[in-house]
Amino acid sequence: MRVHAIEAFDDNYIWAIETSNNDTVIIVDPGEAKPVQQWLKQNNKSIDSILVTHHHYDHTGGIAELVQETPCQVIGPNNPEIKTLTKTVSEGDTVTVAGTSWQVFSTPGHTLDHISFYTPGFLFCGDTLFSGGCGRMFEGTPEQFTHSLLKLRKLPGETRVFCAHEYTQANLSFALKVEPNNAVLQSYAEKVKMLREQDLITLPSTLQLELAINPFLRFDQKSVIAAASEHAGSVKNTPEDVFYTIRQWKDNA
């Protein structure tokens, strides 16, 4: 399986997934139609299916035009705000798309309807998990978000993480405030800096790497708990309280 990044807006990535059928692709979170249409034309591909992680416009805005041009199934969470869905899925569902079986995880926190799609080796997690960070908590609760992240932490370390935004460098700048002595984080931040200086993509990451450098997956590590406590004055030693403290810290940084 090959995955291609299609750039959209200022920092979005729409993912085009080649599976067993060389003529069609799966498109993930098409916030804009035009970049997808251009990529399809340049690569002589058509759309088999569209996967949607949540209802935000920068993940759904291009769907209607794409479907009008090439009718295909649209699979996503059960949310009436996503008016183009042909199939809704939720926690525990498995869907077969273009010959590939995908497990669906409910991953609320950024939004209440957020889901992620997983097939061995590949995770498409929208705005739940970023490289070095996570999405803002617009609709969910700290308990929901930490439960979602704990769910993703259980996946194999070699899982490649395909999130929807090029936020890595900014995320690592904050992560270094939380864990300034994290040697793996320091090294990765230098690598990302070099990539971005060349205007190169920093994704996909891997879950193994994120477990080593991402404070939003490391909320039970002593160094992260200590940093959260120092920042807030005091913090309860629970995953949701540590997560909420560092999420608020980043939001207000």
Automatic annotation (TrEMBL):
GO terms for molecular function: hydroxyacylglutathione hydrolase activity; metal ion binding. It catalyses: an S-(2-hydroxyacyl)glutathione + H2O = a 2-hydroxy carboxylate + glutathione + H(+). Zn(2+) 2 binds at D58, H59, D127, H165. Pathway: Secondary metabolite metabolism; methylglyoxal degradation; (R)-lactate from methylglyoxal: step 2/2. The keyword ATP-binding does not apply. InterPro entries: Clx_II_MBL, Glyoxalase_II_hydrolase, HAGH_C, Hydroxyacylglutathione_Hdrlase, Metallo-B-lactamas, RibonucZ/Hydroxyglut_hydro. Its EC number is 3.1.2.6. One of its GO terms (biological process) is methylglyoxal catabolic process to D-lactate via S-lactoyl-glutathione. Binds 2 Zn(2+) ions per subunit. The keyword Nuclease does not apply. CDD domains: hydroxyacylglutathione_hydrolase_MBL-fold (cd07723). Zn(2+) 1 binds at H54, H56, H110, D127. Residues 11-165 form the Metallo-beta-lactamase domain. Its cofactor is Zn(2+). Keywords: Hydrolase, Metal-binding, Zinc. Thiolesterase that catalyzes the hydrolysis of S-D-lactoyl-glutathione to form glutathione and D-lactic acid. PANTHER family: HYDROXYACYLGLUTATHIONE HYDROLASE (PTHR43705), HYDROXYACYLGLUTATHIONE HYDROLASE GLOB (PTHR43705:SF1). Monomer. Belongs to the metallo-beta-lactamase superfamily. Glyoxalase II family. This is Hydroxyacylglutathione hydrolase. It comes from Idiomarina abyssalis. The gene is gloB.
